[in-house]
Specification:
single chain; alpha+beta; Serine Threonine Protein Phosphatase 5, Tetratricopeptide repeat; five-stranded antiparallel sheet; 19 helices; disordered N terminus
């Protein structure tokens, strides 16, 4: 016997060692498999991400190629539209508008001269404008008095008389000469005033400049000659601005002379000059004028041409000519964007034949970029289209990478949990039988006690062992109340389901609104009293006849009372009022409960919506009571209003239209 026991112990020891060995083997194998699967999934995931990144970059490049093709097509189409527009323009330009100039400078050359739209954008004209000849005899006496006899006083009198001449050109010339004589006579102030009278005189003088320009330039020189540097610089700066704005139609030589002299008087450096872009436009107009002169002598009947210049400022000139006129539309600098266009997700720029940027700036070399040649428009330039941002693709890839990392982390976690569970299960395999036996015993004991109690109670009720009538009535009353409550809850849920599905059934009949409300209150009175609440009623005793469904409106009264009682745990009074207002029956239910915040009022009648304060107070509810009230009132063509203040209670108002039907008894 002792040997059997020893053999048995040895066998058990060996068995335990074998089990422990198998357990370790299983654990190591499982961990290795889980790690291998994790590594394989990780490698496949990273490969998938790399492929998706390559695919996303290729798709982005294809989209950029498509956008570049669209911009090029749009550019060529606008060039063609501009050519068609210019071909329809006659010798006289149309009324000035943004559509006519197309964002550029519209210039017309004809026998009538040079016309520009929009006005004030051209520094100088390619040819000096014509001027009217003066009758020199009118100024002969004044010239003699001024230059031969030096009788400046008499010369002033003679010129003053000519300032009243009926010819405007004679008056302008007389004022200009009079100011000069006044300056010689030392009458500086009078001379400035006389020059000021010519500020708006745009007639051309024989000096190929308008009198306004001559007078304003003289007003710059006069203070400078008197060593009034500040006044001279101020006046000269204003004149520089007028010259840069193209205020006067003067020739190139006149502009260059007045511009350089005026800038010197303004104290600017010798290298200062008009804006480069405006000079480029003026030179483009001058080149177009030369082309017009050549075209007139060539005997050709039509001409369509694209002229360009890259430096120092980019200029594109589209020319259309016939024997009667030549019309040119000039785009310079950033105005070229009107032809190119741009999108919100791309950046467009143009470079010249040497790769220097014309407009749009430079782009980082690392940015995705597509180039298109503008040779189809007879231009040696190149269109560069760059994607502004690839944040969407980067965010997408980053999100996928995060998902992969999270998945791998979850796999590793699950593997660890699996290994832990496996270790616990394998290492405790030997004690599983005993644990199972203990578990069955414990569960049997735990089940035996409640089952015994339930059986005894069932036998007492089934065999009628409770003989006291008071206890029986109390038990039956409790059962009846609970059964009624469960029945009411089930009915509420069923009716709400029908309403929500649009299958609610209503039986409309002529009812007394006040009486119906009174019935609903009396029906609910017992429950409200049991909860310790008092209902104060203020009803209109006159008959308020409405077309309504009796059960539906009683449900409205019951739900509003339940709502008022439920959310008034501290205030034990609920007020109910009925009446008539504006041919409508009114029901108001007011409480002094927790109230409803303003931000929740708009959603309080939606199904399943409950206030945050009710949730925090752990007040039970389903969130369908007020939704049913809203649905019933809507079906009855009524209105449901709410006024509430947090901490002071709420008032729900139901307004139903009175019936137009006359009762038979009244008839």
């Amino acid at each position: 016997m002792q040997n059997e026991t020893g053999g048995s112990n040895l066998s058990r020891s060996m068995s335990r060692q074998a089990i422990r060995f198998r357990s370790i083997h299983v654990i190591v194998t499982s961990v290795g498999l889980v790690l291998l699967v994790s590594l394989a999934l990780g490698w496949l995931g990273w490969r998938l991400l790399a492929q998706e990144e390559t695919l996303e970059n290729q798709l982005a490049q294809n989209r950029l190629e498509q956008r570049a093709d669209d911009l090029l097509t749009k550019f060529l189409r606008r060039i063609a539209e501009t050519e068609a527009l210019l071909s329809r323009i006659g010798p006289a330009l149309p009324t000035e508008s943004a559509e006519s100039s197309q964002g550029g400078l519209l210039v017309s050359f004809s026998k009538a001269g040079v016309e520009v739209q929009p006005r004030g954008q051209l520094l100088y004209r390619p040819a000096a404008p014509p001027f009217e000849l003066l009758d020199a005899a009118l100024f002969a006496e004044a010239d003699k008095l001024e230059f031969q006899t030096s009788d400046l006083k008499t010369a002033r009198a003679a010129l003053s008389a000519l300032t009243m001449h009926q010819d405007g050109l004679v008056r302008a010339e007389a004022l200009l000469r009079l100011a000069g004589v006044q300056s010689k006579s030392g009458q500086k102030s009078e001379a400035l005033n006389t020059y000021a009278k010519l500020a708006n005189e745009n007639r051309m003088s024989q000096l190929e400049a308008p009198y306004a320009l001559l007078s304003r330039f003289a007003r710059c020189e006069l203070p400078a000659a008197s060593h009034q540097e500040a006044a001279a610089k101020q006046e000269a700066s204003l004149l520089v601005g007028s010259l840069e704005s193209g205020e006067w139609p003067i020739g190139k030589e006149s502009f260059a002379w007045y511009d350089s002299r005026t800038r010197k008087l303004a104290g600017q450096s010798a290298e200062s000059r008009a804006p480069e872009i405006k000079l480029a436009v003026a030179e483009a107009v001058e080149a177009a004028w030369d082309e017009w002169q050549h075209f007139q002598g060539s005997g050709s009947r039509s001409l369509t041409q694209h002229r360009h210049r890259s430096a120092p400022s980019p200029v594109l000139t589209i020319v259309n000519a016939n024997p009667e006129r030549m019309v040119s539309l000039i785009y310079a600098g950033e105005a070229l964007r009107h032809l190119i266009g741009e999108g919100t997700d791309i950046h467009a720029s143009v470079t010249d034949e040497h790769g220097q940027p014309l407009f749009g700036g430079t782009v980082e070399p690392t940015a995705a970029q597509v180039r298109r040649s503008l040779s189809a428009a007879d231009l040696p330039w190149q269109l560069n289209v760059t994607a502004l941002s690839t944040d969407t693709g980067i965010a997408f890839l980053a999100e996928r990478r995060n998902y992969l990392i999270a998945a791998l982390a979850a796999i590793v976690l699950l593997a660890g949990l699996a290994c832990y569970a496996m270790a616990r299960g394998v290492l405790r395999e030997a004690a599983a039988g005993q644990l199972q036996s203990d578990f069955v015993s414990a569960v049997s004991h735990e089940f035996r006690s409640p089952l015994t109690t339930l059986r005894q109670l069932t036998e007492l009720l089934a065999e009628g062992r409770i003989h006291e009538e008071s206890r029986q009535r109390r038990y039956f009353s409790v059962l009846q109340q609970e059964t009624s409550r469960l029945h009411q809850l089930v009915e509420n849920l069923i009716d709400f389901g029908r309403m929500d599905a649009g299958h609610g059934q209503y039986k409309f009949e002529l009812l007394d609104f006040s009486g119906l409300v009174q019935e609903g209150i009396e029906e609910y009175q017992r429950q409200a009293g049991a909860n310790g609440h008092n209902i104060e009623i203020h009803c209109d005793h006159s008959r308020l006849l409405i077309d309504a469904d009796r059960e539906a409106l009683r449900r409205v009264v019951r739900n509003l009372l339940e709502n008022a009682v439920k959310y008034s745990p501290e205030a034990k009074t609920v007020w109910v009022e009925t009446g008539c207002e504006r041919h409508a029956a009114i029901l108001r239910v007011r409480d002094e409960g927790i109230g409803i915040p303003p931000e929740e009022k708009s959603r309080i009648f939606e199904k399943f919506v409950r206030g945050e304060a009710a949730k925090k107070a752990c007040i039970p509810g389903t969130g369908i009571g007020l939704a049913m009230v809203k649905e019933i009132v809507t079906v009855h063509h009524g209105e449901l209003d709410l006024s509430s203040e947090v901490g002071h209670g709420s008032t729900f108002s139901v307004r139903l239209p009175l019936s137009n039907t006359v009762p038979e008894s009244s008839s």
